[in-house]
Amino acid sequence: MPTVAVTTVPSLASRAGGWLLALSLPAYVLVPITGVVAFSRAGVGAFADITKDQMASLGGGWTVAVLTVYLALLVGNAGLILVALQLRRSAAAPWPLLAAATAVVAVAAGAVDAALRIVAEGFSEATLGENALFLAAEIASNVAFSASALAIALLALAYFAGGAHRATGIVVGSLGAVLFLISLLAYAFVPPFALALLWVPLGIVWLVGLRRGAGAGI
Which range of residues forms the domain containing residue 188? Predict the structure, then answer.
């Protein structure tokens, strides 16, 4: 079976990309833990229903929770970008660059989402869900998730097009495409950690390839 020829890059970048992908699931585990710690004492349910008094009782908990979500998104997409860049001149081109570019969009949209949510903490409406900044953050969150799912599908396509680990490319790519479509049609029903369930196998395949000396890990 042919292997993918890649550009010469520092091994640290190759390993970091794989490990970030693999560690994206533990990063998402921190999200509900932080949420329980921050919100349970204030009796917070759905974010849109948070009142001014509830937000005030959270103190810095709201900001910590928002940044934890962004950290999880950043870990997975940063790993994907690093891995994709190792394949930018391989037989898998142009899919790696498209995957990296899409992941950059996801990271940027996630940053906008986090910033808007933090600023919205000072809302004056009856509930957070009535605040314009919060509503804009919800849109940015959707963009970040959808772009992340699309980036996963594109990197999986690069795995497949490169001629090695075709099974991983087909399975993860198909699931990534389905996740992308669902995020467009029914984003509210998609759990954020679903991204990590697809990042992890991409990272594991990459790291296994590194150990076997198969190019830059694929």
Answer: 11-212
Q: Which residues sit opposite 51 in a β-bridge?
A: 127
CA 157, 159, 161, 167 torsion-angle sign: negative
In a domain, 198, yes or no: yes
For residue 212, the model assigns a pLDDT of 76
Amino acid letter, 96: P
DSSP 8-state class, residue 127: B
Inside any domain, residue 156: yes
Yes or no: say if 86 and 217 are a contact pair by the CB < 8 Å rule: yes
Q: Name the one residue in this structure whose structure tokens are 């919205």.
A: 120
Q: How many CB atoms are located within 10 Å of the residue 95 CB?
A: 24
Res 213: pLDDT: 67
pLDDT of residue 30: 92
Residue 2 falls inside a structural domain: no
Residue whose C-alpha is closest to residue 17's, from 213, 214, 204: 204
Total domains in the fold of the chain: 1
pLDDT at 214: 52
Low-confidence stretches of the chain (pLDDT < 50) are: 1-10, 215-217
**CB contact at 8 A, 130 and 154:** no
Tell me the Ramachandran region of residue 165: left when phi exceeds 0, alpha when psi lies from -120 to 50, beta otherwise: left
Cβ distance 17 to 86 under 8 Å? Answer: yes
Q: Is the peptide bond before 94 cis (omega within 30 degrees of 0)?
A: yes
